[in-house]
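Fold tokens
===========
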Amino acid sequence: MLKLNNWYLRLLVSYFPILVLTVSMIIFLSFIAVNEISRSETAKADKITTGYVVNSVERAVREVEFNVLKEAESNKSYAAYLNGTSESTTIKYNVVHSLRGMIDNNDLVESIYLYRQSDDTVLTSSGETELSEFGDRDFIKKAIANREYQGWSASREFREYDGLKPVQVISMYKQTPLPFGKDGILVININLYGVEQLIGSMTNHQVSFMRITDSAAQPIYPGDGLVPKGKVLTTLTSGSLAWTFESGIQAGHLLSWVSVVSYVWVIIAVLTFVVAIVYIIWVTRRNYKPIRLMMNRIQALHLRGSDGTAVKLDDMTMIDRALENLIVQSQDHEKEQRESIVLRRRQLFNELISGQRSEQMLERLRSLNLLPSSGRFAAMVVKLNNYEEFQADNTLHEQNVLKFALGNVMQELANNEGLQGWGEWLASDRITFVFASGDTGTQMLDQLRRTAEVAREWVEGHLRFNLSIGIGSIGNEWTGIGRSYRDALTGMEYQFAIGRNAVTFSGDIPQIQPNGMFNYTQQCTNCVQEFRLTNESWRDTFEQLFKHFETDAMKDEDILSLIQLFLQMLSRELKELSDTLNECLDGAKISELLISLRGASTLPEMKELLSDYLIQVYETYVAMSQTKGYKTMITEIRAYIQENFADPDLSLKHLSDRFEISGKYASHLFKLEYDMKFVDFLVQLRMQQAERLLAETEDTVQNIALQVGYANSITFGRVFKRLTGVTPGEFRKLKMRPSNLILGMQGNREAATTES
């Protein structure tokens, strides 16, 4: 019984911290609520009061301006005085009398005077004076310099005569006679002391404060410049005066009335606390019996340790152990259920896209309600491009999150198009969807295309990676999904040729495929030859090659293979011509370019990447060729060969060292100039000299061979017969005349040039 009573006390006491916390929060929140309400209402009241003050001041100033301008426009004496046609004392008296009347009728007006420009005279309520003797002459000069100004000035000092004490005023001026005259200026000065009195009559300084500054940040109110203490609640700006009005509550007065309300809330909170204690005791006693029954049942359990002996545990530990076991078992069961569902769904999806058909599979599809039982069906394959970069840029968790987001985005976009879909990741970089629609095939294809295009743009803009999407054929039954899946995979093999923004449809694949690769290989060869000969037509050949890629709908791998072959041919032709070209055509650079081309999503993108690279190589090649004119170079090389053709060590390497060019470039120059190889050119020179020596001298064949650059007569004889058709001995016996091989070669080349 003591144990039960202890449990009862523990249960009872356990409520108290929550109770205390709840009551404390109630009191605190109540105080804050009242405080905030009071602050809000105070701020509203202050804003209304400040707005009233602003409107009152603006109205008073506008009234002064209106009365003065009305009098100046309606009283003909003003215009007569400004015209200066008559020096009538009556006119001056009328104007002075009018000015005095307006000053006396309004406490805000400090002074009104009229400046006549024709003789620099100022007429005030006191009389007429010269501008040079007038105390406010500086302001008049500024007004003359800026006649178009329309507003009121900032706070300034005004004195009518130099000896008088200055008065703080704000001023405005108008060109007169009104409304468009330019004979003089009418100036109105409002005394800021009167404005202070007006504002002070509308403000309770015991509770609130107000601070006013003009456009130059000079204090207008209070005039003594003292800064009141308190938080600014309202800030308003007068449009006509350009004054800034700041107001708030004096420090120490904001919460004076709130205290009384707070005391009431505290009393209510204490009463609530007492009632809550009584209620908790009552509830605890009422709920005690069910708790005791539950404890008796738990104590009846035989919990044993690992050695089989009974374990004595207190009540809370027993409850904790029982709940822990229950939770673990429940979690394990839920995990097994989820994994089992995922595996079954994936297995069912694999059976569906593989084209299998069984009543059991169809029944499971209907039970899961993932796809409708009738309609039109199509498969879509979505591939993550540059998957290695995707893995390198994101952690495993981020990859899973992005893949999950991609699947949801595709499902959502398909739903927006009226498609019902089901997707599964069948590979790490590829997710496959099966979509169903009740529309016709054409409508469904449009829906699939829009879904794919929007998804690709959204993923590229928000998830920062690219997709390639293949759409399979559209079937009327579930059994056609397998074929649609295979068609989608096949379509993705033609992404460059038939893809639209990296989206391919298998139905766009032409039924008749191009015959062989010979024509494309020949085009690549022609382009490289034109490139090597610095013929600008290589660009047209390059364009034509890519047009054929598109029109013939070639596979992506075939296109990449041809481009790789093209780059290898170009490298073989140009790589050894100079170190700069060797760097441009280095194997690592070409491999990097091929990786970039493989990562392209469209054929134009691939073409642009390759074109930029070829233009760079071409410019380097042309610059190298123009470093020294090849005409001059070939002339020097030819002269050197003609002088040293008898040297048995004469070779392309020898020329390369002698003229500081690569041997391959020297061979290229010979081919370009003479349409023959360097070796053929050298052999013909030697044979021409050998024919002359055979015909004109009695030297032995061995000596002649040594004189023309051959180490022995056997090699010399074999070459001589191959070129002339007879042996050296037969040539001498037949007394044949020497032929002009080189000249003949040049004549043939010039004739060919002329014909072309």
About this structure: The two ends are 124 Å apart (CA to CA). Confidence is low (pLDDT under 50) at residues 741-756. The first strand starts at residue 109 and ends at 116.
